[in-house]
Design goal:
The complex is a heterotrimer of chains A (330), B (367) and C (525). Chain A has 330 residues and is mostly helical. Chain A has 14 helices and no strands. Chain A has a single domain, classed as Orthogonal Bundle (ABC transporter involved in vitamin B12 uptake, BtuC), CATH 1.10.3470. Helices cover 67% and strands 5% of the residues of chain B. In chain B, the strands form two sheets. In chain B, strands 1-4 form a two-stranded antiparallel ribbon. Chain C has 525 residues and is α/β, with parallel strands linked by helices. The radius of gyration of chain C is 25 Å and the shape is globular. Classes of the chains: A mainly alpha (330), B mainly alpha (367), C alpha/beta (525). Chains B and C meet through helix 8 and helix 9 of B and strand 1, strand 4 and helix 10 of C.
């Protein structure tokens, strides 16, 4: 009995940590006043480049670093176009998504068709390094040990990033300056805050964080490339919606990921739940699997509507979001 | 000490803009050529093949034109539709989802149309698609108007939900499911009966489908609608400043609802024409027009004539990649998407170059 | 004299427009220098080059005798220059403390507050500021925000302080307090530049006056050795009469009567609180009040753009409460409101003059098409009549200069032949000549028997132009005064709520003797 719950909780975390990466990355970018709709593409590029680098060197550390750098470069492109060149943020973001996903398939197909083929994950050191850690004592706690303290290192990295980011926004002066830019770039600029530098830095770091999330998804899917299904599979988009759900707070993003993950995890866990509780939850089996696949998007839709009903829910939204800043505009 | 700084140009010249755009496209193609060269492919040969869309040295050249038009028609109509909503600053990026719901509803009619006259069936298919897509559009617009719900993300979620709806239909063998072939064990989408397949004007071996004519007529209508009618005027005012529109006594909500209905209904129409031309439905029926349409609309700066031209160019790019793929198996159709992305990035840079100039600061030592 | 700042040969252009032409200016150490000039004479542009917002096209800047380059606000801050901008540069969602903290250098990377807070409190105490550091800016009154802005630059250790039109949003009493602070700052060794176009303030506060005109430097004079008349001549360039025409008209019955009107603002707070007033034909009624006292909500309520909570609005004997904006317009009430950004309401900036002409009546023609032919003819007429400077009727409004934009707006409002014209801030940001054109347009309408409600900012102008002035404070009516029998000081006291003359001397202001209302309940005849 308990095993089902343990596994459920375990899976909530395992399957939804990419959302946490995507959401915290996007929060960082949005706090600087930029709306980046290119999360899906940024994650896809980070995933494929990071994975290939990791497979080549057989090292998780390299994989993480490379995915961070690759996605960071995508962020650099976004920052260059929107901050320096004043391009429309919506269009730039959407193009990054189109470009990123196409890049993913293009590289994947080219490699799959080449002589060497797509590098497999199974049995490599990379695979081993990304597997669950055994933390002495903690992992042995009944129930919670398996559910919470037996994850791969990237799960904990994601949580640490969220906590650090929360601290950064709340307690540090650069965090304060960043938030000021998102609220009123003109005011921050007049106080000598280098708006462009801050925007560039945070867009790049935020994008890099998304990239690690993409890599995580790839590893979690066993590293197999399919010509028809992208690893990211819409998680980038859900991340953008989760930002609203989390009211632009990295701490709430952690909570949001878990709440959201609950529904998302039903997709993989519904059968197990139904068998464990045939009387109470047997009906879960009758629901087509496509419904569970669509569920995250349906939930997002509902969350969007509900959060728009209350104006209070958006108090964390940066006031200058989506608008480019050009100092000499009068 | 900085000697140069950027200044926004006071005027905008069409000629300058066009020159920068052309330069941007050339640079993109050059970048694409480098990618090809890296994969060991002669870029000139590849581009040669791509831009002639397989017409050269092909006995069945007319097939290429037909194939190109099948990509062009839905892309053109969808881009026009999206331009309508973008002009109003309504970020409808749910083209994919709106297309799919239209395609599903049109197919409902099509699969059950055996024995009906061809013209009646197709009209019914179009109506069903337009109404169903339009309702989705109007629902999202209503939420936006009433509660200011984020339309960008809403329309996006519709894309994914509809994708799973059509996959569900395509994967589920059941007595009710008339979409699938009855003679197959595996779930496969069936073909429409004769009554639901789009006809056309035969020109020798080549058949000019009615949908092409409809798309061209629609372009003219949308052009007139935006430029000369009161509705079009209202759309530009709302898009420019909704406070002003409200002040002028326009009911902004009504205009947003109406325009989003028309915009989504047009996408539905594109879907109906597409399934009818294809004679079947599938979960890849959209061919990503919902996404590509956004790029087309933006590349065209929401101008209707430019949308027409850009749609042709992008269709050539996409179909050209398909055509070239037969000879270069290593390069699949995603190359077109990749190139599209690079082109748009370049155009964004070109746009900047056309609107800003770099000014050299006079040295102030003489003072 | 030892100079804190010297500007030599500064030139700055925006496209074809030269905002500053070869300007030389010097600020002595420990003085208050008034920078005087009309709107559009280039004062703010010049100062923005000191604050690092703009960079000069040519010319050089010396601080304490050393040549410097100011490429960004950061450079400016490091040189000890602090600017209080006219539109405050504050983060509304942050507290006062957080706003100040953003710009404090060298106090570590963490926001542990105690010593930072102590320093700020010390500075505040030194200059006698009374400020709650934990108050969120969005909850502050305008004068509090300004205090915060000044405290900010003092905390950053600025020795040279520039204030851009600091008095525009303040009441007479608040201005006195501000000037006291400025004098204290001067005693403390700060050098101050204050931008203004109000002569009485120049005389009151400054040691010297530098005058700009049309982007050119004219002269610097010692305040004690000059007078308002001489300064005006320097500023305007020719002797002009500082008088605005006020034709006296035969007044008709009340055209528009407002009784007990209560309106809420966007945040749901009461913005207009049980206001009574009326406008007769041929009368120009001014509305005075501190910015944000309910002017916008009042205008919007009358135009039907904002639902009312309570009260009656009678136009020529008929209630207009609950009517659509379109119907109110058809009734003959026309409203034009110039917001702070000038383009936000009333005009579609990217559309042509022609398209903006028909904004309110495009729907009156038959058929589905917009009648652009007659629209173009109307646009031509308005352009000629109001002497609008534009390349063609098809030029987007965005490309016109401020004065011309406002003429387009007023031209359209007058074109429909209203009998009640509501106009808010019609001369906002205009130079004197353009302002006079606007006053003439309004007076022409008045002569035609139109009743005009004029929401204004400059009390001198209102006293000259308006027949009567109603004063509001926090949405409450403080009284209606006759322009000939009042003073600026009296209006100032009413604006702050210190003085309320309603029901004084036995009469109730804002209610006409020959009202269309018959009894106290406000029902109609």
């Amino acid at each position: 009995m308990l095993d089902v719950f343990t596994l459920f909780l375990f899976n909530i975390i395992v399957y939804n940590i990419p959302l946490l990466y995507g959401t915290t990355g996007e929060i960082m970018i949005e706090k600087s006043g930029s709306l980046n709709l290119g999360v899906e593409g940024t994650m896809a590029i980070g995933a494929v480049v990071g994975y290939l680098a990791g497979a080549k060197t057989d090292s998780l550390l390299v994989a993480v670093l490379v995915s961070f750098i690759a996605s960071g470069l995508v962020g650099l492109l976004f920052a260059f176009l929107t901050v320096t060149l004043q391009a429309n943020q919506n269009v730039t973001g959407l193009t990054i998504t189109t470009f990123g996903v196409a890049f993913y398939y293009f590289i994947g197909n080219a490699l799959s068709n080449s002589a060497g083929g797509w590098p497999a994950l199974n049995g490599t050191k990379l695979d081993a390094q990304s597997q669950a850690l055994h933390i002495p004592l903690l992992s042995d706690i009944p129930f919670a040990g398996k559910a919470i303290f037996s994850h791969g290192i990237l799960v904990y990295l994601g949580i640490i990033i969220a906590v650090l980011m929360w601290f950064y926004f709340k307690k540090t002066v650069p965090g304060l300056k960043l938030r000021a830019i998102g609220e009123n770039p003109g005011a921050a600029d007049s106080l000598g805050v280098n708006v462009a530098m801050y925007k560039y830095t945070h867009i790049i770091i935020g994008s890099g964080i998304m990239g690690i999330g993409g890599l995580y998804m790839g590893l979690n899917m066993g590293g197999t490339f399919e010509g028809s299904n992208c690893w990211i599979n819409g998680y980038g988009w859900i991340s953008i919606a989760l930002v609203i759900f989390a009211n632009w707070s990295p701490a709430k993003a952690l909570l949001g990921t878990l709440v959201f993950g609950f529904f998302n995890t039903l997709r993989v866990q519904n059968a197990a739940l139904a068998y464990a509780f045939p009387n109470a939850l047997g009906w879960l089996l009758k629901i087509p699997s496509h419904f569970f696949s669509a569920l995250p998007f349906i939930i997002t839709l509902i969350v969007l509507i509900i959060s728009s009903l209350s104006s209070k829910g958006r108090s964390g939204e940066p006031q200058a979001i989506g608008r480019n800043y050009y100092r000499e505009d009068r | 000490m900085r000697k140069y700084h950027l200044v926004r140009r006071a005027d905008s010249q069409l000629r300058r803009t066009l020159i920068f755009y052309a330069a941007g496209i050339l640079i993109s193609l050059a970048i694409g050529a480098v990618i090809l060269a890296c994969l060991g492919i002669n870029p000139f040969e590849y581009y040669g093949r791509m831009f002639t869309i397989g017409l050269v040295g092909n006995r069945y050249g007319y097939k290429s034109i037909e194939g190109l038009l099948k990509i062009f028609v839905p892309l053109l109509i969808t881009s026009l539709a999206l331009s309508l909503s973008f002009k109003m600053r309504f970020w409808n990026i749910g083209g994919e989802g709106e297309f799919l719901i239209g395609a599903i509803c049109a197919s409902c009619i099509a699969f059950n149309s055996t024995g009906m006259p061809n013209f009646v069936t197709i009209v019914l298919m179009c109506l069903a698609a337009m109404i169903s897509s339009g309702i989705i559009g109007i629902a999202i617009a209503a939420l936006k108007v009433r509660f200011n719900t984020n339309e960008t993300l809403m329309t996006l979620m519709i894309n994914y939900i509809m994708l799973y709806v059509i996959r569900y239909i395509g994967d589920t063998k059941a007595p009710w499911n008339f979409f699938l072939r009855e003679d197959s064990e595996r779930p496969i989408f069936g073909s429409f009966p004769e009554s639901a397949v789009m006809g056309g004007i035969p020109l020798g071996k080549f058949t000019l489908l009615w949908s092409v004519l409809i798309a061209i007529i629609l372009t003219v209508i949308v052009y007139i609608y935006l430029k000369y009618t009161k509705h079009g005027y209202e759309i530009s005012v709302v898009g420019d400043s909704s406070a002003t529109a409200k002040y002028a006594g326009m009911s902004v909500g009504k205009i947003v609802l109406r325009t989003m209905f028309i915009s989504s209904a047009l996408i539905g129409l594109a879907a109906a024409l597409t399934v009818s031309s294809a004679g079947t439905i599938s979960d890849t029926i959209t061919n990503d027009v919902g996404w590509t349409g956004i790029i087309v609309a933006w590349l065209s700066k929401l101008s209707v004539p430019a949308v027409f031209v850009t749609s042709i160019l992008i269709a050539v790019l996409q179909y050209g990649c398909q055509a070239a793929a037969t000879q270069y198996p290593a390069i699949d159709v995603n190359y077109a998407d990749l190139l599209q992305g690079i082109i748009l990035f370049s155009i964004l840079v070109a746009d900047f170059a056309a609107n800003f100039k770099i000014v050299r600061k006079e040295d102030a030592n003489n003072a | 004299m030892e100079y804190a700042i010297e500007l030599k040969g500064i030139t700055k252009s925006f496209g074809p427009v030269a905002a500053n032409k070869n300007i030389n200016l010097a600020l002595a150490k420990g003085e208050i220098l008034a920078l005087l000039g009309e709107n559009g004479s280039g004062k703010t542009t010049l100062m923005n080059m000191l604050s690092g917002i703009y960079m000069p096209d040519s010319g050089s800047i010396f601080i304490d005798g050393k040549k410097v380059q100011i490429n960004s606000p950061e450079d400016s801050g490091k040189l000890g220059i602090g600017m209080v901008h006219q539109h405050f540069k504050l983060v509304e969602r942050f507290t006062a403390l957080e706003n100040i903290r953003i710009g404090i250098r060298g106090e570590g990377r963490f926001m542990h507050g105690a010593d930072v807070r102590k320093k700020i409190e010390d500075t505040a105490a030194k200059f006698g500021f009374d400020i709650d550091l934990d108050k969120t800016v969005s909850n502050m009154a305008v004068s509090e925000k300004q205090t915060l802005e000044i405290l900010k630059v003092l905390c950053y250790g600025a020795k040279i302080i520039i204030l851009d039109e600091p008095t525009a949003v303040l009441t007479v009493q608040e201005i006195d307090r501000l000037f006291a602070v400025l004098r204290k700052m001067r005693e403390d060794g700060h050098s101050i530049i204050i931008i203004t176009h109000k002569l009485n303030e120049v005389m009151a506060i400054s040691d010297r006056v530098a005058v700009l005109r049309h982007g050119e430097y004219i002269d610097t004079v010692v305040t004690k050795e000059t007078d308002e008349k001489a300064l005006t001549e320097l500023m305007v360039g020719r002797k002009i009469e500082l008088s605005i025409e006020r034709p006296v008209m035969e007044k008709t019955h009340p055209l528009l009567e407002i009784r007990d009107l209560t309106v809420k603002n966007d945040e749901g707070a009461i913005a207009v609180d049980h206001i009574n007033f009326y406008i007769r034909g041929g009368e120009l009624l001014g509305v005075a009040g501190i910015a944000g006292s309910g002017q916008k909500e009042l205008c919007e309520a009358i135009a039907g753009l904002r639902p009312i909570e309570e009260g009656q609005m009678i136009h020529e004997g008929e209630s207009i409460v609950g009517m659509s904006p379109k119907k109110i317009l058809d009734h003959g009430i026309s409203m034009s409101f110039i917001p702070e950004d000038r383009l936000g309401m009333g005009l579609a900036p990217s559309l042509s003059i022609t398209d903006n002409m028909i904004l309110k009546n495009y729907n009156e023609t038959k058929g589905i098409f917009v009648d652009r032919k007659s629209a173009r003819a109307e646009a031509k007429k308005v352009i000629e009549r109001l002497e609008i400077n534009t390349p063609s009727t098809e030029t987007p409004v965005r490309r016109l200069s401020g004065g011309n934009v406002q003429k387009v707006l007023l031209g359209r409002e007058i074109k429909s032949g209203p009998n009640v014209l509501i106009t808010a801030y019609p001369v906002r940001g205009l130079d004197i000549n353009s302002s006079y054109t606007i006053y003439d347009i309004l007076n022409d309408q008045k002569k035609k028997g139109v009743g005009i409600l004029f929401v204004g900012e400059d009390l001198d102008v209102m006293l000259a132009l308006c027949d009567k002035i109603m004063v509001i404070c926090h949405g409450k009516l403080q009284g209606v005064v006759n322009s000939d029998h009042t003073t600026k000081e009296e209006i100032g006291l009413m604006m702050t709520g210190t003085l309320n003359i309603i029901n004084k001397e036995g009469k109730t202001d804002g209610i006409a003797k020959d009202s269309a209302f018959t009894d106290e309940e406000g029902s109609l005849t």
